[in-house]
């Protein structure tokens, strides 16, 4: 497992503080009750310098997560964009992972969060391929998890909140314990849900399929980007509830996520997917996605925020 490699500065509520000083109290509400909202955003090293991929959409999702949980953030998206750009420049990193966090701090006793101060942090650090260096080329071996995703109208799956990741931790730890790189959790209805931190796509007879936003998965920004790229390339795409067996029957399967980028899946539950190697549609989408993110393919949708 990769360790965090420290950078120099973390933005905290309007100021840059040294990495080691960005601490919170052990009795902060978010520590006790898992109530921090967060994001994961990648900044890529492009020919025009560091550029953050779909920063505005990530910050919009962050503020939506906060809204659902009645957390008032006193910064606008444009202020957070400016702070993120400065963060990358100050830390002198070319590519990195940015982890915006809105934390309910120390103040009130008990579970009711109202009254605890709201603190906003922007840390960043260099981070390579999430599922290992080989994963993007060779694909990974995955399993269907014995843990399902949440039922709609229990814990909101579309909010990216720390507490939701208890589910992700169980899925991921079980997969690793059983020798797989990643687990795919089914939705409460038994259809394909998502990975511990990724959305899932299937290619079947030339059509790209992914599950709908039905209250049991996160609305991934990479997922939306891949659907857009597929549309640009004329690849037919459908959103519908995918039965588990279609995973095994698929020609190609891949994960999408900011951390995982577009990672092919070569087997599920030890059943080979398609030819057991990266399929042609996966490859095409991956090349386009990473090409746009790294500035080597035209940024035709305005997805990059340049930092300098
Ligand atoms: C549970 C879950 N699903 C899907 C995703 C993919 O989302 P995105 O593409 O916005 O990173 C993530 C990552 O944030 C996640 O944690």
From TrEMBL:
This enzyme's EC code(s): 2.6.1.42
Pathway: Amino-acid biosynthesis; L-leucine biosynthesis; L-leucine from 3-methyl-2-oxobutanoate: step 4/4; Amino-acid biosynthesis; L-isoleucine biosynthesis; L-isoleucine from 2-oxobutanoate: step 4/4; Amino-acid biosynthesis; L-valine biosynthesis; L-valine from pyruvate: step 4/4
Cofactor(s) the protein requires to work: pyridoxal 5'-phosphate
Reactions catalysed, as given in the entry: L-isoleucine + 2-oxoglutarate = (S)-3-methyl-2-oxopentanoate + L-glutamate; L-valine + 2-oxoglutarate = 3-methyl-2-oxobutanoate + L-glutamate; L-leucine + 2-oxoglutarate = 4-methyl-2-oxopentanoate + L-glutamate
Leader sequence residues: none
GO molecular function: L-isoleucine-2-oxoglutarate transaminase activity; L-leucine-2-oxoglutarate transaminase activity; L-valine-2-oxoglutarate transaminase activity
GO biological process, alphabetically ordered: isoleucine biosynthetic process; L-leucine biosynthetic process; L-valine biosynthetic process
UniProt xrefs under CDD domains: BCAT_beta_family (cd01557)
Cited function: Acts on leucine, isoleucine and valine.
Name used for this protein in its record: Branched-chain-amino-acid aminotransferase
Organism: Gemmatimonas aurantiaca
